Amino acid sequence: MSTRVLTGITTTGTPHLGNYAGAIRPAIAASQVDNVESFYFLADYHALIKCDDPARIQRSRLEIAATWLAGGLDVERATFYRQSDIPEITELMWLLTCVAGKGLLNRAHAYKASVDQNEAAGLDPDAGVTMGLFSYPVLMAADILMFNATKVPVGRDQVQHVEMARDIGQRFNHLFGQGRELFAMPEAVIEEDVATLPGLDGRKMSKSYDNTIPLFSSSKELKSAISRFVTDSKLPGEPKDPDNSHLFTLYQAFSTSAEQAVMRADLTAGLAWGEAKQRLFTLLDEQLAEPRERYHDFMAKPNDMEDILQAGAVKARKVATPFLAQLREAVGLRSFAVQGTDVTTSKKKAKKASRVVSFKDEEGFRFRILSVAGEDLVLSKAFADGRSAGMASKHVQTAQEALDIRDTDQQLSIWFEGECIAQSQTYSSAELCAAALVELRNALTTES
Ligand code: TRP
Predict the structure, then answer these.
(1) With a 6 A CB cut-off, is 334 part of the ligand 1 pocket?
(2) Nearest to 107 by CA among 164, 58, 170
(3) If you measure from the C-alpha of residue 43 to the centroid of ligand 1, how many angstroms do you get, rounded to a whole number?
(4) I need a labelling partner for 7 at 20 to 30 A (CA). Which of 38, 235, 250, 273 fits?
(5) Residues 6+ apart with CB under 8 A from 223
(6) Closest ligand 1 atom, residue 161 Cα
(7) Whose CA is nearest to atom 4 of ligand 1?
(8) Ligand 1 atom nearest to CA at 43
(9) Residue 447 pLDDT > 80, yes or no?
């Protein structure tokens, strides 16, 4: 199984150097690794929770999309989309809302912080708290679980949300999985070394501290921001301690180890801060020149970005649509047409049995399961004797929802007593495979 990496960026602001080096650049690098499937998206539904300025939302979506693309994200390889283009996510959010404990959400840091502030101010604890803010972690759980992501790169402040996604997913698996893992369990990944890129005042670079360095503005603005970088008051010629210098930390995030060694030696030998700033500027300006140009190209062609994101949405929905269909099935939102009833009289059982055909070939005793329309779905292994084939086939016909059907690498398999007893063909897409799974369940639980 390949690893699925997924992360989103809330579209409320203009990306700064910290966002780029701390989140976007490493995510793009991760997407280039073999056996990694990456899902990167603009969390624009999340943006609505914090921002009621439509112009700002729209501007930020464009800027963040252009930043990913300028950074070199290969949209053929990764799946790159806007959250709001995937209606399955909000639908899943409802399914999850119905299993998420209110008590769990009461403990979310962001919500608790609002309550604490209100209480300190003598206000109603929920003053100004919207259901969007309260349910923020459930929407995030839907983002993650929709794509069965296993690795979720996030900032430290988001780790609790990923843990909540695990909790909610586990609860759902337990209630509706019939022993199957409907959702994979996600894990938060924190990039320790880059997550804490220092801002102009030495604290973590963050818009809320107003200490950010602009990313794709002009060289002049970059230079003027760097000139404001806070350093100690050591004079030119006095030795500086690189390990206690935020400027050096930032320099390290963008330089080779050879460049770092030179800078380190020069600072220790008394390089003036003004000169060090100049070097940092040159380094950043050179590295950002190319992506900066691409960024402005993309910003000038919003239609191109629209096309890219529409294509990304199609790709994401290829995964989301069949998976949501399976989840709807699981909770009991099923088609009347194919569902029949759950009443299992022996007469109906006999009809179900007709979907399972037993036969013998030169290798042994087998059975095959046909879809309601009569197409082959799975073929059993060859059993040594008729009795074991019969037991396996009986299990398949009577286990109902508890039947252990697995969907791996676009192939279905049925498991019984620790072994794989039947397999489907390998389908050419995950979508076809998921559709076959629905048919297989129908064939085994439906009267005709
Ligand atoms: N809440 C995240 C943030 O503000 C953004 C986000 C939304 C996200 N959905 C996600 C991150 C799913 C990772 C996975 O940083």
Answers:
(1) no
(2) 164
(3) 7
(4) 250
(5) 281, 285
(6) 1
(7) 10
(8) 7
(9) no
Q: Verify whether ligand 1 is closer than 6 Å to residue 140 (CB atom).
A: yes
Give tens-digit pLDDT for 320-337.
999 999 999 999 999 888
CATH number for the 355-447 domain, one of 2.30.29.80, 2.30.30.60, 3.20.20.150, 2.130.10.10?
A: 2.30.29.80
Task: Determine the pLDDT at residue 278.
Answer: 97
CATH for 3-100+135-193+301-331 (3.40.50.620, 3.40.50.300, 1.10.287.370, 3.90.1150.10): 3.40.50.620
Q: Residue 144: CB within 6 Å of ligand 1?
A: yes
Q: Is the CB of 212 under 6 A from ligand 1?
A: no
Q: Identify the residue whose tokens are 């579209």.
A: 11
Q: What is the mean pLDDT of residues 58-82?
A: 97
Q: Is the CB of 143 under 6 A from ligand 1?
A: yes
Q: Is the pLDDT of residue 428 over 90?
A: no
Nearest CA to ligand 1 atom 9: 140
Match 């989309």 to its residue by tokens. 81
What are the CA-CA distances from residue 6 to residues 65, 145, 328, 393, 404 (Å)? Answer: 16, 10, 23, 40, 28
7 Cβ below 6 A of ligand 1: yes
Q: What is the pLDDT of residues 12-37, one digit of tens each?
A: 999 999 899 989 999 999 999 999 99
Integer angstrom CA distances of residue 65 from 5, 50, 204, 291: 18, 19, 23, 13
Q: What local confidence, expressed as pLDDT, does residue 46 receive? A: 97
Confirm if 416 and 381 have CB atoms less than 8 A apart: no
Domain 3-100+135-193+301-331 identical in fold to domain 216-297: no
